[in-house]
Here is the input.
Amino acid sequence: MAAADPKPSETLDAFHRGGFYLLQPRGRGHRAGLDAMLLAALVPDRNGETLADFGAGAGAAGMAAANRIRTLQVTLFERSPEMAGFAHRSIALSQNRHLADRVRLVEADVTLTGARRIAAGLADAAFDHVIMNPPFNDGSDRMTPDELKAEAHAMRGPLFADWIKTAGAVARPGGQLSLIARPQSLAEILTASENRFGAIHITPVHPRPGEDAIRLLLTGIKGSRARLSLRPPLYVHDGAGQAFSPAVDALNNGKGSIER
Here is the structure.
């Protein structure tokens, strides 16, 4: 069933040059962009696999992965009822009918543990891939008055530890964890991954050559004991302007992936 036209409080946004669409809140909350597309680009194109998108918001990263990989089965996990509503309506858009039978939504808090986690739909060893873009501002930072945005952007408690613990539970042996984060979160991520995910590959993302990294793209394999690898950097822009570099433009539009 096609979703209704967007309301004045929301926007209808095209991704992958019209490959799929999202309904998103207008002027508030977290609005998906390049981070979500880079996260989706970490998922390898293999036939018939399953993916869990933790903290999916309106569904950008999971739907981007499904749009690029036409056999991928995706479950979006989102705890905010309002953002889950946007995701549900986005899946139902007529423009996304090619994804509707491979993308589903589960309203759940991915920090749940034990029987409560399983009852919420986060079953043990259920997914080949887990992707996540957790809130990466420290909870002590100055908070935005926008409560929806604050929930999406600011940590409360050891969030990476909790999310990666759940990822370790729901990923199958040999399954892949993929995440995007700020560089200052690296130590916490590596600590949380210990004894869960190995063969860690880190790709730093820089605005331009000569500028400090602003994001890290990280993948790991459940149960692996292989050593950490620091991959070549990815540059968002290759000149003084705001145009994306060719490599990032391809990733942003679902025309490539970041290979391990």
In short: The longest helix spans residues 159-170.
